[in-house]
Structure of Lipoprotein LpqB beta-propeller domain-containing protein:
Amino acid sequence: MRRAPAVRTSVSLLLAPGFFLVSGQAVAGVSEPAGVLHRPVASERTKGPTLRYMGLGSCGGRRLCGPWKARLSDGRVIRIKDARAIIPGPEPEKASAAPMGVSPHGGHLAYSRRGDGALVVRSIVDGYVRQVPGFIMPPGKVELTVSPLGRFVGVRERSAGKPLRLVNTATGAVSTLPPRWNIISFTPDATRMLAYTDEYGDKVALYDTATSTVVRRMGDATALAGDGDTLATRVHQEPEGPDWITFTSLGKGTEVRPRIPVPTHNVYLTWNRSGTLTIRLPILKGPWRNYSAYTRFVFDPQTGTSRKADHIVIPRGLRAHRVAGSR
């Protein structure tokens, strides 16, 4: 997947030429624990505080230290005491952060529970916590991708040859997907998912989470709107070309509104239930070009206007930080 460094944080509008998609289909397996009935997910309330950022502290030098601390949109800082924080390394200084996934809008967390390793989903909105039925987190380094409202969690082990697993957090049902697959994003209602199907990020599958099937294959894609048709895609023109966000109709196969130029290909996109698009831009600073801040804009395709929704500065000393959409 091609990336370019971030250099500024502004969004403007400009008309530019089009881009195309390719269709296809495939299937994937699904398993469900016997005797498990459908239960409500962690919490589907959408009104209330959300996560701005979270991370781990340090216990002198470079040693990571728990628990996870989360800064919320209402100004509170909470400690996620039941979450596993550290994966031990050969030396204390070489320990790594335990898996922690954040939903696209910052309303839900997914993590491994201390003590028994159960996969847990927590609602930031109301603090409700529930264990996913029958699912124990694998040991080692794992990426967790959380869907809107915490309905699904993608579990991707970093070990070579391990399949991607998509877990229904209400029932514990698991869809097993090929090892090279990597989740890009979900629709706002989590009924569809976009995933890379190759290691280069050039081939994408549109996956139906209800039927566990691939309903379409296409070229590069980033985020599908709730209408199931409008596709927002990051486009980078090599080697020094501009970066864009395009808006394409899957049904028509054509762009449906002017492109948006952005300062970097490495932006995070997520559609909102209202039909607006959240655009998160990273700010890179320091000798190692670490992410030190993020700016979020909300773009309205109907009016062509954007507004600055938030600017997040990561405190110095906060390790393994996460923001909305992190895995």
